[in-house]
Specification:
Blueprint lengths: L5 H13 L7 E3 L1 H4 L11 E4 L2 E4 L4 H4 L14 H6 L23 H17 L1 E6 L11
Parallel strand pairs: 1-4
Antiparallel strand pairs: 2-3, 3-4
This protein binds protoporphyrin IX containing FE (HEM).
């Protein structure tokens, strides 16, 4: 008997229509995150304290020419904490350790937490950021 019975086709179409796209939780390094900097049609991601957010719905903010484009594809933690999108807020060495943010003061930590809460409400977490060479890092 064929599996393409009418009832199966109806079930299949329901499945296809109602199933949201699977969210695959991935482990990123600063280098693999950079691919999602909004320079092409790929999703736009940024990291905050090790969480990678899919900020594609905010492409106007983070895409090329957007006010916060520097954050796209990068660890935005320090910039969010300092309320600054200056380039020097970004970790320069993508192959080095992650920014440990140890020097942040109480106000900056509060800023950062505020942004983090906003992002958790607004965006999907699609993965975590680890340093290159971390045991969890994808082999490249
Ligand atoms: C002249 C100064 C600034 C103006 C006029 C401004 C304006 C705005 C506006 C209108 C929004 C959209 C709010 C909404 O509709 O949700 C926004 C969001 C945002 N701003 Fe600013 N901003 C300024 C400075 C900054 C700075 C210095 C930072 C650096 C951290 C920053 C980071 C953000 C972020 C991360 C968002 C959230 C975007 C999102 O929802 O994904 N802004 N800003």
């Amino acid at each position: 008997m064929s599996i393409a019975t009418p009832i199966n086709l109806v079930l299949l179409s329901l499945f296809v229509v109602t199933e949201p796209p699977p969210v695959v939780f991935r482990v990123f390094t600063p280098t693999t995150l950079l691919e999602f900097n909004g320079q092409d049609d790929k999703p736009v991601y940024l990291a905050v304290r090790g969480r990678v957010f899919d900020v594609t719905p905010g492409r106007n903010f983070y895409g090329p020419g957007g006010p916060y484009e520097n954050f796209a594809g990068r660890d935005a933690s320090r910039g969010l904490a300092h309320q600054s999108f200056d380039l020097e807020m970004l970790t320069e060495d993508l192959k080095g350790p992650l920014d440990d943010l140890k020097d942040l003061d109480a106000d900056q930590l509060e800023n950062l937490q505020g942004w983090e809460e906003r992002f958790l409400e607004k965006y999907l977490v699609v993965g975590k950021l680890v340093a290159e060479g971390d045991a969890e890092a994808p082999k490249s």
